[in-house]
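Objective 1.3, modelling of assemblies. Example input:
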Amino acid sequence: MRTPKARGTPIDDGRIRSWLDRLDGYRVAVTDDRVRTWFNNFRGQDTDLGARVLDAVTFLKAEDMEAALRDMVGRLPGWHKSVARRQGEWRFVAFSISAGESGDSMLHRSRTALGLTGSQYDGLFIHKADLLRAGLGTDDNVVFFDDFAGTGQQACRAWRGDPETQITGLAELLPGNPKTYLILVAAGQRAVKRIAQETGLQVVARHVLRPGDDIFSGDCHHFTQPEKDGLLAYCRRADRRHPQGYGDCGFVIVLSHRTPNNSIPVLHANHQRWRGLFPRH
Amino acid sequence: MTKRSRALVPDPVGVKTLRTDQLQPNPYNPRMLFDKAPLKTLEESIKRVGILVPLTVYQRRSDRQFIILDGQRRWMCAQKLQMPTVPVNQVAEPSLVQNIVTMFQIHKLREDWELMPTALKLELLMKEMNEKSERKLSELTGLDVAVVTRCRKLLSFSKKFQDMMLEPDAEKRVKADFFIELYPFLHDRVVAKMPGYSRTTLTRKMLDKYQNPNGGIKAVTDFRKAKQHIANARKARKLSALSPKLKEFVEKIDLTPDHLLIPAADVSAQARSLYSKVQKLQEELTGLDVEGYVGEEELWSALESLLRSIRKCLGAAGRRIKE
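Predicted structure (tokens):
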């Protein structure tokens, strides 16, 4: 979380301009009009709170994510762009696959960022449904890509399967026990720990969000308790079911292609009662 | 035991006792998750009398780990009961094919579970054994021939679509039933020959129609209706009238299968008439005092013949006949 400006800093054209510059590149353009509309969600005396929340937002642009992906994959032991210098077989797979969603998007970004767009690298990028057939063994490597993990619940379910929704897990598609990595642009510390404990995935995350990144936690010192209470009331208006974000994460992070649902809803909820600045859809 | 089936059984090594924590579940097990209720019953039995039937295990050459071939539920109970050791029958490390076949044979398929993971194992088996016959695959795996057929239909779709069936999030996952129902529609020769539409494009468009709240495909069974309208048009030699309608149906997301109806080719009126006759007959049969008709040989022969006709019709329509 970024340190917000001092309380009472005027919300003038200069401050708005700095937000527009910093938040440029979101899937729904952040414009002067939209920022002002977003402030209309707050009562007059609370606009300062809204402004400081906006100051605190960590915004990851497409180029930030590509640099992070390049760096994280580059550091994986045994990986090299050249086949001759690579150790074992390597496969890159989207972790979540719904068209245009996070895993798909990250896989595409990684391919570009790693300079692996040539057709000679096609074999590296496979589908989950190819994994079993790929016959990978203990010397081989599978790198899964996703953008964000808030609580780790989804990743754990994806790994081991879920009797409630009657699906078997990824582990079942990797019988040869290859090394498996989950590359994430950002993740909650809780998620990283849980995934490491409950799955065979080694998590590599560029930004790890710590307890202080939960805006409502006692570890977050940028906002006073009355400010947190006031913000929570607005969050309830934005999303009654998950006022602190999914999994009560309380994050204020936005990725340029989509805001995680673990971020607080005043940022992304978008309906009649609340006009969000970073709508997810 | 035939020569071929003997070759699919791993050779025995010996009986011994191993530490419970030395064992690992078999990654080829098509049943890695288990219902809690039956496990509890087994756990209570093991608590009372111990493990009576040794687990079957092999030692994996690559990392010397002991892998369970048979007895994963017993092992899970032993873990829960904190039993330090378990009795095992060790066998030689099976080949890939032996392992998959053994797993299929030991663990009954969970029919209500998503079929795609099973289909992928079957695909691997087909590749390793170079075996395509559904009957032989059914014998090898213990899967019903109809299940093998369904798996093969799923495998005919591209990996991108197969991934959609593996999605862990139930809300985003596309059920196998969608693709199984779509299959005959895509393979109808009129649909398959639509100029400018690849199978992937058609699948994508049908998926959009199904997933969009305003889409014209409301239920996976709608594809049967679409196929029926096409078949009726073909029989009535009205394909030239159908052709533009089919293109519109594919392109316009909100059009339902009824858009393909050619009034002159409609057989639904006949179907409705037959339906009411079937219902009437069923009512009479349900109320039949069987004892009073035991000697009516002609009636029973007619009913047997009717049953054969019904089975034949259902089979030809690709319906699953539940016993």
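The longest helix of chain B spans residues 297-316.
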